[in-house]
Write a structure and sequence with these properties.
Blueprint (H helix, E strand, L loop, with lengths): L1 E7 L16 E8 L9 E6 L12 E4 L5 E7 L10 H9 L3 E7 L7 E4 L6 H23 L1
Antiparallel strand pairs: 1-5, 2-3, 2-6, 4-5, 6-7
């Protein structure tokens, strides 16, 4: 699973707002689980602790050159995870029982939380479109005879 997240107004280096440590980013990870609880366990970490993007480490972290924030990119490979795997968490992610959380000095239990939204890869959309086109063409031929 690929991830690409841009975060604004959090000091992701500890030096973007040198006079304010409250907005310093401590940890960032994905939470997921079954049930209807408001707080799920950490299943994959990519900044701070735990750091589970390690098999291989695909993280790309780009702090803003000016301003406060940065961009986080990574790939959750199946063997990675915080006492779990991607395969074990797919049902939770696809069912909307997952979120990404950024923790700061001021809010160590979470400053920013966002629900994960599955987005198909472009190749998947291309295959779907091709399949629908072929199905429509076959139906049109069937109706002509």
């Amino acid at each position: 699973m690929t991830m690409d997240v841009t975060v604004f107004n959090l000091d992701v280096t500890g030096t973007q707002t040198p006079n304010d440590v409250n907005d310093n980013l401590l940890n960032a990870h994905i939470h997921a689980g079954a049930g209807s609880t408001a707080t799920f366990p950490v299943v994959w970490g990519f900044f701070g602790a735990p750091q589970n993007d390690n098999n291989p480490d695909n993280r790309v972290f780009t702090p803003f050159a000016t301003g406060v924030g940065g961009r986080f990119q990574g790939i959750w490979n199946n063997p990675e995870g915080n006492n779990t795997t991607l395969t074990a968490q797919l049902a939770n992610i696809l069912a909307g029982r997952s979120y990404i959380n950024f923790h700061t000095m001021q809010n160590p239990s979470g400053e920013i939380r966002g629900t994960l939204v599955p987005v198909p890869e472009p190749a998947t959309l291309l295959l779907l479109g091709s399949g629908l086109s072929l199905a429509a063409r076959a139906r049109r031929r069937k109706n002509k005879f």
